[in-house]
Amino acid sequence: MKLTTTLLILSAVSLFTSLAAFGEEVNRGVTIPIQLPFDGSEPKTYRVTLAITAPDNPDWIVSTFVSGAVRTVTEENRGRFTETWDGLDDNFMPVPPGEYGVKGIFMPTEIWAPDGKPHTLRPKILSGPSNLSPRHGRGEDKLITGDQVAPGLGDVAVGPDGVAVFYWKFLENALNPYRLDLSQPLGPEQLLGGFGSGGTGGGDYITTDGQTIWAVAPTDAVALQTQMNGSVFLYPPFLYRADQKPFGSDHMIRRNVTLTEGRVTGLAAYRPNEEGPALLFVAERGKLEIVGKHPHGKLDLYGESPDERVNVLRVLNGNTAEEISRVPVVEPTALVATNQSLHLLEKREDDWAVRSTPLPQDGNLDPAAWSKPVSLPGLKDPRDLAVDSAGRLFVADP
Questions:
Q1: Are 128 and 76 a contacting pair, CB within 8 Å?
Q2: Half-sphere exposure of 224 (CA within 13 A, CB side)
């Protein structure tokens, strides 16, 4: 909510001469009246923030002289208050004589039980992830918990049913990933719970067809402060199912998973029909190779080769991890399946481009069915790709 923007006129005689000559005037400052909503009902409390702005640019803040101040509207004051500006900017220096604007915002508050103080923002879903978050089994099961060892979310995927899968890069002692129903009103009831991480902690890529969830572990960030030849893993990445059903015959932290030959840079899923298995599309870039030993143990450290490339797009049976087909690609960067098409972002020489192909019903990709690459000039280091229902491309480029 915005307060009405007004114009404050400061003259050298009325303000600054008085400030220089009379100490009491300095303390008094400039008084500014404001009006908060008043409807004659029960008292209402707000937090108010006011700022002095440049006269020729209301977006240029000269001084934020009231910040989150608590003001309670009653029958007696009828929402009228007077605030004081000391004539100083945000660096506590006197401003030059002249005309200045005043603008502000206010928000309703409520008293929080933990501290008994008024607050303006209340989270709909309490999350951390943090070891200080409330624990399960205490009537607070609609929570996301755990120690966030690695920074932030690794990936978010949304199924055709509107259920989103949130995958953290690494949550210690927690479930991961979590499912949220985006079709429900914003609130704790959206949270549908999580899956046991099975020791994987988390990763950077996840996908779902609305029934099954596939993910890659570990994440680039989980290197235990070890840096060798760029990104380093404690163990080679592998594909697994969040429901912990077998997905391949390799054994890592989890048993019955699928190792990849190259570093995964994209996952996508598609279910051609309800009866048959889903298809899992996996984009792999540089070959994974051993780059050393972990200094505190005997584990091999794996990293992406800077020279030897895999550069392949594979199609796997979503139930068994059996490879159905593969096609060569050019430095894959991101992958998304939507609108009956598979879209691939690739780095081509000094530029990035997107091309697409119809989603195969049997999992067999046709190299000749790909569209011509659409160049996306100006990108620096794109990380992800999305396509909306109208076919518009969205590229995340930090």
A1: no
A2: 14
